[in-house]
Design brief:
Layout (H helix, E strand, L loop, with lengths): L1 H8 L3 H21 L3 H21 L3 H21 L1 H8 L4 H5 L11 H13 L4 E5 L13 E6 L2 H7 L10 E5 L2 E7 L15 H12 L3 E5 L6 E5 L2 E5 L2 H12 L6 H31 L3 E13 L6 E5 L3 E9 H5 L7 E5 L6 E6 L5 E2 L5 E6 L2 E7 L1 E9 L2 E2 L6 E9 L2 E7 H5 L4 E3 L2 E2 L7 E8 L6 E2 L6 E10 L1 H10 L1
Parallel strand pairs: 1-3, 8-11, 16-20, 17-21
Antiparallel strand pairs: 1-5, 2-4, 3-4, 5-6, 6-7, 8-10, 9-15, 10-14, 11-13, 12-15, 16-19, 18-24, 19-23, 20-22, 22-24
């Protein structure tokens, strides 16, 4: 139980959003493509991918490589072979239907009228060919059709396939309650296992059924028999009731009340959503909890909860080296701003303090673990703050030009106000300026210089600028005067 709670604690809110977004995308793919051949192939590709992951986890290198190649090729094939189905799904009239709406269902055909007319034609030995499309687009396999868009009726069907009619040899395509095309030419099958009594209509029905998900009803003119073509099967139909049932199954017509059908569809949709969530969660676990990686980072140390009466005078280290452990995906997305080392000084006392750096002091994003930290301890020196006026001394460097003496020096202001730890300030008696070169001086004058704070833990008070003015006087020395007199 503790391990499970620890795992839950490592999940980021970004991970939850990531899983939900991709679960919804997978659910939309199911809703838009369900029932199509492309969806079936997509399921096969997903199964291949899972097999490849299992083979890789078991160390089956050659098998994993082979399945990966097959999966890549299949992904390209599904785009090329099933481009019509994909185009049909993507060619929506509004964004709502694509992103969150449910597919619009076609109005169901008046099946009983169609079945009655078909068996009447069979009794009169009138040949007929009727196509009930599925989800796939028939545009690239069915040609020569004449737009009709007429309401279905018994008389309409009989007139279309009347032997002397101009379109009786072609197929009628039925969608919803309309005959949308007549006289359509269907692709012929190349199968050689069909019975010899099957003519051109049967071969056309079988050809279209092999290439699409349509249902084709064919009436034999010679024998007066009715058959249904679906996938690779040509099934004889004995009566109108059996034909109605076959058409209803193809059109997915509900045999229960609309309310119960709606509840069943919502339950099916909820189950699909839950399965999508499980699949994406499994993939997420595979990516984020697999392929563990170790990385080392240098992170500055932050000191928090310092007692107000103390100041930090010195620290033994300024940064810590962390060795972090996690999945390669999380490690790659890690940024330095997400990692911090914070040492709590709330229990610190005046003077040197030693602290152990533990995992509680390290701030890490969920999913990343601390493997090692160096150094494991550090020393922090604290002291009470104080203010002190300290005299300023000029730091002369170099030598005066020959024959010159420095006779008088004054600094303005003579002292500067500094703040720092009381212990430190008690040891500081003089503040020096930046080095001032004597060899640059040729006559009396003034110059400015900044003071140098040492040790670095002391700071200038707010009313001090740190810039002083140096007044100096120069004159020639006696030996130089004697030398000039002798030269005369």
């Amino acid at each position: 139980m503790g391990g499970f709670l620890t795992f839950i604690a490592t999940i980021r809110w970004q991970d939850i959003v990531d899983i939900l977004i991709n679960s919804y995308i997978l659910l939309r793919v199911y809703i838009l493509f369900q029932g199509t051949n492309a969806f079936r192939v997509l399921v096969v590709i997903t199964s291949l991918w899972l097999g490849q992951e299992i083979a890789a986890s078991l160390g089956l290198i050659l098998t994993s490589w082979a399945i990966r190649g097959i999966t890549a090729a299949a992904a390209i094939i599904i785009i090329v072979v099933f481009r019509n189905e994909i185009r049909t799904v993507l060619q929506v009239r509004n964004v709502k239907a694509f992103l969150w709406g449910l597919p619009n269902r076609e109005q169901y055909s008046p099946v009983d009228i169609i079945s009655g007319a078909i068996f009447e034609m069979a009794g009169k030995r009138i040949g007929a060919l009727l196509v009930f499309p599925g989800i796939q687009d028939l545009g690239e396999v069915v040609h020569g059709g004449i737009p009709w868009n007429g309401q279905i009726s018994h008389e309409m069907l009989m007139s279309i396939f009347w032997p002397n009619g101009p379109v009786h040899d072609g197929a009628a395509i039925i969608k919803g309650k309309q005959i949308v095309e007549v006289g359509a030419i269907l692709p012929l099958t190349r199968r050689h296992d069909l019975p010899s009594e099957y003519g051109t209509r049967h071969r056309a029905a079988a050809g279209l059924a092999e290439e699409t998900d349509a249902l084709i009803v064919v009436v034999s003119e010679e024998r007066g028999k009715v058959s249904v073509a679906k996938d690779r099967a040509l099934i004889p139909i004995e009566n109108a009731r059996a034909l109605s049932q076959a058409i209803k199954r193809h059109l997915k017509m509900p045999e229960i009340s609309p309310t119960r059908q709606r509840k069943r569809e919502m339950l099916k949709l909820a189950a699909a959503g839950f399965i999508s969530f499980l699949i994406i969660s499994g993939i997420w676990l595979g990516f984020t909890r697999g392929q563990d990686t170790i990385i080392a980072l240098n992170v500055p140390i932050e000191y928090v909860n310092r007692p107000a009466s103390y100041e930090i005078l010195d620290t033994s280290v300024d940064e810590a080296r962390l060795q972090l452990f996690g999945s390669s995906a999380l490690i790659r997305s890690l940024s330095p701003e997400q990692v911090a080392v914070r040492v709590n000084l709330s229990k610190a006392t005046k003077g040197p303090n030693t602290f152990a750096i533990t995992q509680d002091d390290v701030i890490l994003p969920p999913g990343i673990s601390l493997n090692r930290i160096k150094p494991s301890t550090l020393e922090v020196t604290l002291d009470t703050p104080a203010t002190k006026q300290i005299p300023v001394q000029v730091d002369w460097t170099g030598r005066l030009p020959s024959g010159m003496d420095l006779t008088n020096v004054s600094v303005s202001p003579a002292t500067v106000s500094v703040t720092g730890g009381s212990t430190t300030l008690s040891k500081v008696d003089t503040i020096y300026t930046c080095p001032v070169r004597l060899d640059n001086l040729s006559r009396s004058g003034t110059t400015t210089a900044e003071v140098v704070l040492s040790p670095p833990s002391i700071k200038l008070s707010s009313n001090s600028t740190g810039l002083v003015t140096i007044h100096y006087k120069l004159r020639g020395n006696a030996s130089a005067e004697l030398g000039r007199g002798a030269s005369r």
